[in-house]
Amino acid sequence: MNQNKLRHFLKEEFSQAQMRRPGYSLRSFAMRLGVSPSVVSEIFSGKRKVSIKMAQKLLNKLNLAPDEMQKVTSVAGTEYAELKVDHFNMVAEWHHMAILSLLETKGFQNRPNWIANRLGISTQKVEQAMERLFKLEMIKLENGKLVRLEINYKSPDEVSSVAIRKWHRDHLEKAILSLEKDDLVTRDFIGMTIPIHHNDIALIKKRVRSFLEKLSGELDQGLKDEVYQLNFQLLPLSKNKL
To answer: For residues 61-94, b (16+ Cβ closer than 10 Å) or e, as one string?
Structure first.
């Protein structure tokens, strides 16, 4: 979902309400939306990212028609917060992003041993990862509930680093393990070998990123109960011509 579009729409609604009723406050607008003034303030400032589910809840309070709501919550243009290289270095091990995704699953429990059991890692690893996520302000406690501050993250594009290569290597190793032990019903491996022109590489990268953004927006709706990893690899099989 496009966060800028939603932010602009809510600000516009607030501005129009102020024009109709001089003295209309942010607190009044927050009450209308069914959230606290601090939440509205964070949305307006861009400090809080809004999920599709929360956006629909807010827009329902404004009594929008279904077609108007669809325009605002359109999955086209899903936004990602890009992690700086030094920040990515701190959370490069796969379980950091897995913990962030686990927060959104049904029945999540903010207990290190529960998280460790769900991800198959040690409690110590969970505690260390949580400390890093708090330090980087990727999660916070809100009314006793653990929440993530961004909906989607991505590593810097077209940047090669030891941490980024390790992140991909870890997931390739997990893919090999899944290929051997996970049931076909719970996983899917697909690939193809194709001839291309080297100028097509940029187009392939663009199309894959576009697909992932759209899919991410569609999957953002509804309940979640598992954490999955979806990978794409594009690699050369032939050597450069002499």
So the answer is: ebebeeeebeebbebeebbbeebeeebbebbbbb
